[in-house]
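Lab notebook, page 48
Experiment: co-folding of the full assembly
Goal: obtain a model of how the components sit together before planning crosslinking
Operator: M.T.
Materials (sequences as entered):
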Amino acid sequence: MFLVLGLFFGLLAIGLPVGFVIGVAGMIGILQMGPRFMTMAPDRLFAGLDLFPFLAMPFFILAGEIMNRSGITMGLVKLADALVGWLRGGMAHSNMVASVLFAGITGSATADAAAFGNTLVPAMEKAGYTRRFACAVTAAGSIIGPTIPPSTLAIIYGSIMGVSIAGLFAAGILPGLLICIICMAVIALLGRRLNLPKGEHGFDLCEVWLALKEGILAAILPVFILGSILGGIATPTEAAAIAVAYALVVGGLVYRALSWRDLYDMCVRTTRITGVIFLIIASATILGWWMTFNQIPQMIAAAFLALSSDPNVIIGMILVLLLLIGLFMDINATLIILAPVLAPLTLTIGMDPVHAGIMIILALNISLMTPPVGACLFVLASVCKESVESITVALWPFILAEFMILLLVAFWSDLTLFIPRLLGLAG
Amino acid sequence: MTGMANRAKALSHRINWVVERACVLLLVLLVLDVWLGVLVRYVIPLPLTFTEELARYLMIWMALLAVSSGIVYREHIGVEFVFQRFPPEMRRWLAVAFDVIGFVFFAALFWYGLEFVERGFRRMTMIYEIPKGYAFIGVPLAAAMACIQLLLTGIHDFFAEEPPETAGAAIAGLDAETLEGRED
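Observation: model returned without errors.
Model output:
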């Protein structure tokens, strides 16, 4: 076991791609059990992907690609600006609100960070914000995307743990909105101290109406996706497939912004992103099988329970573990490897499965923007040519705020379960 | 020696040209298949039951084949923090070592994947009752493509004039173009 662990962390640290690291560690683990078990590697790899809900992932990626490429989503940025751009620190506020509006279309924090890093960060700099503050706001907002549905992590967690994906989607709405509100409060508090620029325009209802008209086609999609899934009309996969159709019709026929070449390029990108994510999922399934066979989840659970039987302490330990591991490992892989370990533990202490799921997902999302190696931070540092250290200086108030929200979500189940209960998706 | 590196890269891109088109074709079929599933469930009630099963297999084939494309463009996610801080020559040796490790992993997957396929021909799919082996072929096939691309990438890394800057991507789908997007 120590060989597998040593290899795992060693190879991961020096930069071998995560999908390879997990696969190699899993295979070596299986090899130690005996060569006759080796066919379990391809067997688990295939079985790990053979889940119908996973289809929603490539579809949401494709729909997001089409919406972005055809410029439909830029309407959302304008809408966010019209709504809150007039405040002190207006562009920082609209960055947050745009994150919420984008959240209903894409499910990836790092993709949002890259997109905003290329567009909103330069625009904020031009308006007089420091680059590190612009990056910090973008990093803080980027985790709203994968918290508010549709969220890739919710699809993975729901599929492998047999928890209602619709329930997880519903449970993500309030925490996602709360991140936006609290981060906007942080921006407002910092506004005077950092002398953040005021918006160029005042609040104008006409402008909001015009922006709404322009952005309505993009804004409708998340409402439709969520409505159909939460209303129990369509499965996430079906809703995602319809989202692709919608994006194609709006981008191609209404906006007339798509050429065949564009479509081909978007399909290529979608397949490559899917390939990268699915290799990680598949490899994690191999390692997960080895862990289960060797009863490692039980050992970890026993170790947790040996330290304390107080539910609050156990929740605290789970959060620390997730934040630490999510820091340097891909969060999809962390979820697949750790969910089967942690979910039974949360059941033991009486947590609702949907509540536990969203807590785990939120902790992993927050780890994406935690220094020194959170992926969103790394992406923004690369895209905006700013050092991680420098962004961190501006980021810490936001990190603190998001940690508080995580604690709130973890210890106040009614907050998370309010919407799922309203829709009959949680007990 | 850079001639060797360039030849390896050119061959890698030529092979990827075919794989990329196959993946796009599978994605298009996948989208059409699920649309058909939605159509028969909500609009025209036809007794078509194959759509779900077919969709799962199309997705797996597409994703697994695309793994080799990710290798060509170094898009597999890794922790780049330490790697990028190594001196250039060290990066070259590490990159080659990564290619070798990856090659061994996929070669093992290919080898044991063949046995997995063989066993699969004795199992039937749930709905259509065709041998599962046909669907399973995707595993050794994708592993073989990954091996070929890792071999060519390894040759390129070894002989190229400049050692690679990165061993992978920080996130899925974030290519060098996006990273270079900002001009100072």
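Interpretation: Chain A has a mean pLDDT of 87.
Next step: discuss with group before ordering constructs.
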